[in-house]
């Protein structure tokens, strides 16, 4: 008897985890998170073990914060810009023209 592979396909991006478009608004992301969380929350589906909920929650945490979402979009090269180096913040002392 041949052994059947039961490998689970992991989503490539946080957008795929929440099943939203990459151009989704904050309201669309929140709605997708709430509808998915209602189905996979450990209190509702204890057999799942909560791992799916944690993955969904982490995706929502990142995509709901505008700064974290922008950083994530840059890291995956969403807008055609590869994140070659981390963003550097400028120091107050170097911004001054003397």
TrEMBL record:
<feature type="domain" description="J">
    <location>
        <begin position="13"/>
        <end position="76"/>
    </location>
</feature>
<dbReference type="InterPro" id="IPR036869">
    <property type="entry name" value="J_dom_sf"/>
</dbReference>
<dbReference type="Pfam" id="PF00226">
    <property type="entry name" value="DnaJ"/>
</dbReference>
<protein>
    <submittedName>
        <fullName>Chaperone protein dnaJ 11, chloroplastic</fullName>
    </submittedName>
</protein>
<dbReference type="InterPro" id="IPR001623">
    <property type="entry name" value="DnaJ_domain"/>
</dbReference>
<dbReference type="GO" id="GO:0005783">
    <property type="term" value="C:endoplasmic reticulum"/>
</dbReference>
């Amino acid at each position: 008897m041949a052994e059947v592979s039961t490998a689970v396909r992991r989503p490539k991006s946080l957008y795929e985890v929440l099943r939203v478009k990459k151009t989704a608004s904050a309201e669309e992301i929140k709605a997708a998170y709430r509808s998915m969380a209602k189905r996979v929350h450990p209190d509702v589906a204890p057999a799942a073990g909560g791992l799916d909920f944690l993955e969904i929650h982490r995706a929502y945490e990142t995509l709901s914060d505008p700064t974290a979402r922008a950083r994530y979009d840059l890291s995956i090269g969403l807008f055609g810009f590869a994140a070659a180096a981390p963003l550097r913040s400028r120091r107050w002392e170097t911004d001054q023209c003397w």
